[in-house]
Q: What sequence folds into this?
C-alpha cells in the first residue's frame, strides 16, 4: 500500500454525547468533521449522568473538563441501601479515584453536552443543526474503496459527501435502518425508569432530616423489583433522581411516556419515609424505556465507509451507567483508528474492521454486565438476604469511624457491579484510545512483510517511523489558536 497522507472528510449523523465525543476525537486525528443534527437546537434532554473513570479520562485529556468546570461534581462515596435506608454496600470514591486514576463525576446532561459542543467548535468541527438525514447513498462494490464517497441528503435538500459516515443517531437511528432495516431495539423486561431533577434547596427546606442522610454522595435504595438513586449535580444546586422500576400494570415501555404521578408514588410507598418524602416533591416526570439493541453481526456496510456507534449499534439498560460512556468510548476509539488512515498507515476498510473486531465484544460484554447488575439490585428473597450478607465487609468499612476506612481484601468481589469497580475493573480502568492503538499494532504486526533479519513487521515499523507532518497542515497551531477564542 502507499503510505501517503490523506485528507479525510467524516460525517456524523447525530450530535448527542457519543457523536460529539467522536467528532472531537476525529478532529484531533486531523479529519474534516461535520456533525448533522436533526434537532433545531443543539442540546441534550434528560437529567443527570455519570462520567465514570473510563470516560472522565477523555474529558480531562481533551480539556473538556476545564470548559464544564464546577458543574462536574465529584461525590465522596456510594451508599447502597436497602429499602428501609440501612447501608448494605459501600464504596469510597477517594480510593476509586486513586486506583483508577480519574474522577467519577456526576453532571447534568445539558452541561456535559454544552462542554462537548464547545470543545467541538474549538477543534474546528462543523456543527449543522436542523439537518435531519433522509437519504443515504453509497456503492457497496467500489472499484477503489479509498475514493468511494457516501452521499447524504437532508430533509431540506442539502447534500453532503463524506469519505466516512458514522451513525451516531441513537435508538431510532436512520443510519442503522439503512444498513440493517430488520434490526429493532427491544425492551427485554417490564423495567423502565422515571427521571426527575429537584433543586437541592427545596429538598432541605421541605425535608430537614435529609441533611443528616444526604451528603455529597450517591445514594441508592434497593428493593425487589425497583431501586431509587439520588445524587447532587450542577455544582450542588440540583438533586438528580432515577427511579428504576418494573411497571405495576405489567405493560412494556417502548417509548418515552408522561408519568402517572399517582402510579409513580405508589411504586415507592413501601420505601424509607425519607424516600417517600423526596418522591412527593417531584412535580412531574417522564418514564423512559430501557431498550437493548443487538448484538449485531456487523456495525458497517460492505464497503466499510458507513459505520454505527453508540446506541445505534448497542443500546443497553442503564444499571451500570455505561450507555453514554460506551458511546463515548466508541468515539475515542474511532478517532485513533482514523488517525492512522489519515497518516497513510491503514486503509479506511482496515480501520473500520479493527474498530468492529475490537469494540463489538467490548460493548456486548457491557450490555450483559448492565443487565446482570439490574437483576442484582432488584433481587428478591432469598437472593436478597444472601446478597446483603455477602457485602458485610463493605458495611463494616463504611462505619469504621476512621478517616481512611480499610479496603476489603484483594480476593473480595462485591455483588455491586456498578458501584464497586474492583468487581469489573476492565470497565472502569479501560482506555479506549490505548485499546485502539494496541489493536492497530496487533493488526499491523501480522499484516504484510516481516523484515527477515529483525523480525519486525514492515507496516508496524512504518507506523512508528511515520511522524511529524499531518496532512501538510500545522494542526497543532490551528487548534491552539481556536482554543483561545
A:
Amino acid at each position: 500500500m502507499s503510505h501517503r497522507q490523506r485528507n479525510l472528510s467524516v460525517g456524523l449523523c447525530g450530535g448527542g454525547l457519543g457523536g460529539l465525543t467522536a467528532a472531537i476525537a476525529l478532529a484531533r486525528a486531523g479529519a474534516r468533521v461535520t456533525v448533522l443534527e436533526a434537532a433545531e437546537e443543539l442540546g441534550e434532554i434528560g437529567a443527570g449522568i455519570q462520567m465514570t473513570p473510563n470516560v472522565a479520562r477523555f474529558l480531562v485529556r481533551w480539556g473538556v473538563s476545564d470548559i464544564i468546570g464546577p458543574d462536574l461534581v465529584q461525590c465522596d462515596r456510594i451508599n447502597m441501601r436497602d429499602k428501609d435506608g440501612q447501608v448494605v454496600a459501600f464504596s469510597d470514591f477517594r480510593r476509586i479515584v486513586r486506583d483508577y486514576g480519574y474522577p467519577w463525576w456526576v453532571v447534568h446532561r445539558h452541561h456535559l453536552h454544552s462542554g462537548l459542543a464547545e470543545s467541538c467548535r474549538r477543534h474546528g468541527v462543523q456543527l449543522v443543526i436542523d439537518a435531519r438525514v433522509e437519504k443515504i447513498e453509497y456503492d457497496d462494490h467500489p472499484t477503489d474503496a479509498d475514493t468511494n464517497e457516501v452521499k447524504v441528503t437532508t430533509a431540506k435538500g442539502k447534500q453532503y459527501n463524506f469519505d466516512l459516515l458514522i451513525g451516531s443517531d441513537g435508538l431510532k437511528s436512520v443510519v442503522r435502518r439503512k444498513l440493517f432495516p430488520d434490526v429493532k431495539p427491544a425492551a427485554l423486561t417490564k423495567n423502565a425508569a422515571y427521571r426527575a431533577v429537584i433543586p437541592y434547596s427545596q429538598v432541605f427546606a421541605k425535608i430537614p432530616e435529609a441533611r443528616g442522610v444526604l451528603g455529597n454522595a450517591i445514594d441508592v435504595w434497593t428493593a425487589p423489583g425497583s431501586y431509587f438513586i439520588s445524587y447532587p449535580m450542577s455544582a450542588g444546586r440540583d438533586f438528580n433522581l432515577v427511579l428504576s422500576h418494573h411497571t405495576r400494570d405489567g405493560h412494556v415501555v417502548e417509548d418515552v411516556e408522561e408519568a402517572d404521578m399517582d402510579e409513580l408514588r405508589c411504586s415507592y410507598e413501601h420505601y424509607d419515609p425519607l424516600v417517600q418524602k423526596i418522591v412527593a416533591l417531584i412535580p412531574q416526570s417522564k418514564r423512559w424505556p430501557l431498550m437493548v439493541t443487538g448484538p449485531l453481526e456487523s456495525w458497517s456496510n460492505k464497503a466499510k465507509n458507513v459505520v454505527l456507534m453508540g446506541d445505534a449499534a448497542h443500546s443497553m439498560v442503564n444499571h451500570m451507567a455505561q450507555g453514554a460512556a460506551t458511546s463515548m468510548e466508541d468515539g475515542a476509539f474511532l478517532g485513533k483508528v482514523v488517525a492512522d488512515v489519515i497518516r497513510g498507515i491503514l486503509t479506511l476498510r482496515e480501520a473500520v474492521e479493527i474498530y468492529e473486531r475490537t469494540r463489538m465484544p467490548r460493548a456486548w460484554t457491557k450490555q450483559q454486565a448492565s443487565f446482570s447488575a439490574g437483576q442484582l439490585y432488584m433481587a428478591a428473597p432469598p437472593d436478597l438476604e444472601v446478597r446483603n450478607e455477602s457485602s458485610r465487609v463493605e458495611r463494616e468499612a463504611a462505619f469504621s469511624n476512621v478517616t481512611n476506612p480499610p479496603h476489603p481484601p484483594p480476593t473480595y468481589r462485591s455483588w455491586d457491579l456498578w458501584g464497586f469497580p474492583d468487581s469489573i475493573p476492565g470497565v472502569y480502568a479501560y482506555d479506549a484510545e490505548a485499546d485502539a492503538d494496541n489493536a492497530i499494532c496487533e493488526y499491523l504486526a501480522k499484516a504484510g512483510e516481516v523484515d527477515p533479519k529483525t523480525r519486525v513487521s514492515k507496516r508496524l515499523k512504518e507506523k512508528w517511523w511515520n511522524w511529524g507532518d499531518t496532512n501538510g497542515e500545522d494542526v497543532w497551531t490551528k487548534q491552539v489558536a481556536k482554543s483561545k477564542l
Remarks:
- The CA atoms of residues 314 and 429 lie 21 Å apart.
- The two ends are 40 Å apart (CA to CA).
